[in-house]
Amino acid sequence: MPGRQAFPRRIPFADTLGFELWRFDGGHAELLLALEPALHNSFGVAHGGVLMTLLDVAMAHAARSVHARTPQADHGVVTIEMKTSFVQPAEGRLRCDARLLHRTATLAFCEGSVSDAAARLCAHATGTFKYLRALPAGRELRSPRHAGRDEPPPSPAAAAAQAADSGAR
């Protein structure tokens, strides 16, 4: 029986939005989101970007779930393309169900839907994902550089000015 579980790999953005993983197996994933006012658009309902991110994360997990208990469990996926249809406004506690439709050695084709607490369809998406065996050369997994800070990271211009200033000393 599905129950709340930890994401197989931490996704800071999904943590920030409040996504909960409830199913991750056999080509399926289920995520829940208790929609907070900070995630609303100017009409007081779920922002489309939040729904698209929820669908993207759920479909990626559906694609990854087929490797959950295999030597490829550390493999990741990246989104190649995604198409979303917004059916009606989304409010309250949202559920996103995603499933793997087809896969090849390198690609996964998925679909997902977001429904509200009354089981009304709010959004539907399809997506194509690429399986990755490892990060590109020279890249490594690491914690976000600015995790836990109250202030945002400096803008590129401010960072360049700071670097130039420290180099002038």
Describe the protein's topology.
Blueprint: H1 12-17, E1 20-25, E2 28-34, H2 48-65, E3 76-86, E4 93-103, E5 107-115, E6 121-132, H3 156-167
Antiparallel strand pairs: 1-2, 2-4, 3-6, 4-5, 5-6
Can you tell me about this structure?
The protein has helices spanning 12-17, 48-65, 156-167; strands at residues 20-25, 28-34, 76-86, 93-103, 107-115, 121-132. It is α+β, with helices and mostly antiparallel strands. The chain has one domain (12-144): Thiol Ester Dehydrase, Chain A. It has a six-stranded antiparallel sheet. It is globular. It starts with 11 loop residues before the first helix and ends with a helix. The model has no long low-confidence stretch (mean pLDDT 85).
Short description:
This protein is α+β, with helices and mostly antiparallel strands and 169 residues long.
Give structural attributes.
169 residues; alpha+beta; Thiol Ester Dehydrase, Chain A; six-stranded antiparallel β-sheet; 3 helices; 21% helix
**How many strands, which pairing sense, and closed or not: the largest β-sheet?**
6 strands, antiparallel
Rg, Cα atoms, Å: 18 Å
Calculate the terminal CA-CA distance, rounded to whole Å.
Answer: 62 Å
Order of helices and strands: HEEHEEEEH
Given the helix and strand composition, which structural class is it?
alpha+beta
Number of alpha- plus pi-helical segments: 3
Give average pLDDT, whole number: 85
Strand order of the largest sheet: 1-2-4-5-6-3
Low-confidence stretches: none
Shape: globular
Name given to the CATH architecture:
Roll
Number of strands: 6
Name the helicity range. Answer: 10-25%
Query: What is the assigned CATH homologous superfamily?
Result: Hotdog Thioesterase
**Relative strand content:** 25-35%
Structural domain count = 1
According to CATH, the fold-level topology is Thiol Ester Dehydrase, Chain A
CATH class: Alpha Beta
